[in-house]
Amino acid sequence: MGSMAKLVISDDGRYVAFSKVPEFKDPAMLFDMAARRTRLLPNWLFPIWISRDANRLTLASYSPEARLMTMSDLWSTSSMTARTDVTLNGYHQFGAP
Fold first, then answer.
1. Which of 14, 18, 35, 79 is most buried by its number of CB atoms within 10 A?
2. In the chain, how many domains are there?
3. In tens digits, what is the pLDDT along the chain, a chain of 97 residues?
4. Residue 35 maps to a domain
């Protein structure tokens, strides 16, 4: 089975989130292109949405079960990020119809 990479760019182009599944040696990252800073992300989830200020990020996984994770306080100085992790039961299709 091959790998998949996902790149999400914020509406204004300032923030870029990158992840690859399955994991590889380079970590998943959130980039702030204007401030030239980065933040590590979980490498086993795909970024699907970035808030305008990139303070919140939604990630998803599709296998072996559908999961959504929202991370907030991404640029805080603490090492702990607030997370909400939800496992979805049954079949769900994400995205525009």
1. 18
2. 1
3. 456 778 899 888 999 998 877 666 677 888 999 989 888 888 778 898 998 888 888 888 877 778 888 888 887 754 455 566 566 666 656 565 5
4. yes
